[in-house]
């Protein structure tokens, strides 16, 4: 995701990016921050963004988890070949930090959380090689093929089931809180996932 570019400044909390929303009716719900780079005319896709700046600022939030959409996660790299996918990987270890980016990584590193009920992401070796994240957890549903769960097991990627068809985020987010001590989540996602996370919300403005 974040590669190359200029050396970021020391981490600090941004003064006025993102919006805060709190979910009604969810026990042990983590605090969710929707974080996006937007164009002047309000778009979050279809324009030339500044990925280095987006991620450099995003990692200053020090959230416990990052909720990434499955389309966004395709940017980690191409799908592995069938042969690669069959190989069982050892448990993932934390990845060393690239020179110049040390300030962006905080400990414990945030959990990378990706909903993928359809089981389409087959590029987990690339995600595993990212230094920014600690554990990697895929959110799946009852309809997710068992074959994909086996695939995740071979890649050393944890999965959490919530929901019958799509992932039930109202269940999954509190489950993340309980299982992984996630108290705060920042999104790295497009409008569909942001919207699916949101209702019902109380907008409390930017900070
Ligand atoms: N401007 C920015 O700041 C910014 C930041 C990040 C990404 N983006 C862009 O946004 C575009 C799409 O992003 P995206 O894949 O991150 O997310 P998305 O298109 O908003 O949503 C797709 C993801 O959200 C899940 N999802 C969507 N609706 C759901 C629902 N009702 N219930 C449960 N899960 C739901 C999907 O899970 P399933 O796979 O299980 O269906 C999938 O993981 C990309 O082009 C990306 O580049 C822009």
CATH superfamily: Dihydrofolate Reductase, subunit A
Number of domain units: 1
Secondary-structure element string? EEHEHHEHEHEHEHE
Mind summarizing the main beta sheet? 8 strands, mixed
Low-confidence stretches: 1-26, 201-207
Helix fraction?
A: 10-25%
Rg estimate, integer Å = 17 Å
Global outline: globular
* Total number of strands: 8
Strand order of the largest sheet: 6-5-4-3-7-2-1-8
**Known CATH architecture:** 3-Layer(aba) Sandwich
Structural class: alpha/beta
Task: Compile the SSE list and pairings.
Layout: E1 19-23, E2 31-34, H1 51-58, E3 65-68, H2 70-73, H3 82-86, E4 111-115, H4 124-128, E5 136-140, H5 146-155, E6 158-161, H6 169-180, E7 184-188, H7 191-197, E8 201-203
Parallel strand pairs: 2-7, 3-4, 3-7, 4-5, 5-6
Antiparallel strand pairs: 1-2, 1-8
The structure holds NADP nicotinamide-adenine-dinucleotide phosphate.
NADP nicotinamide-adenine-dinucleotide phosphate is lined by residues 36-37, 44-45, 49, 54, 69-72, 115-118, 166-167, 169, 188-193, 196.
């Amino acid at each position: 995701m974040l590669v190359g570019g200029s050396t970021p400044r020391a981490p600090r909390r941004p003064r006025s990016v993102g919006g805060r929303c709190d979910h009604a009716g969810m026990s042990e719900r983590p605090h969710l921050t929707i974080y996006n780079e937007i164009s002047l005319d309000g778009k979050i896709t279809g324009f030339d963004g500044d990925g280095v700046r987006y991620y450099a600022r995003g990692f200053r939030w020090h959230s416990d988890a990052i909720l990434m959409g499955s389309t966004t996660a395709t940017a980690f790299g191409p799908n592995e070949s069938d042969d690669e996918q069959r190989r069982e990987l050892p448990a993932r270890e934390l990845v060393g930090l690239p020179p110049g980016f040390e300030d962006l990584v905080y400990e414990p590193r945030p959990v990378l959380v990706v909903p993928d009920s359809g089981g389409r992401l087959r590029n987990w070796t690339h995600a595993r090689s990212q230094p920014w994240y600690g554990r990697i957890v895929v959110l799946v549903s009852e309809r997710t093929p068992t074959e994909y769960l086996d695939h995740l097991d071979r890649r050393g990627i944890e999965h959490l089931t919530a929901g019958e068809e799509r992932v039930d985020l109202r269940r999954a987010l509190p489950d993340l809180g309980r299982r992984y001590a996630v108290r705060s989540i920042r999104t790295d996602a497009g409008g569909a996932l942001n919207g699916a996370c949101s209702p019902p919300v109380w907008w409390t403005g930017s900070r």
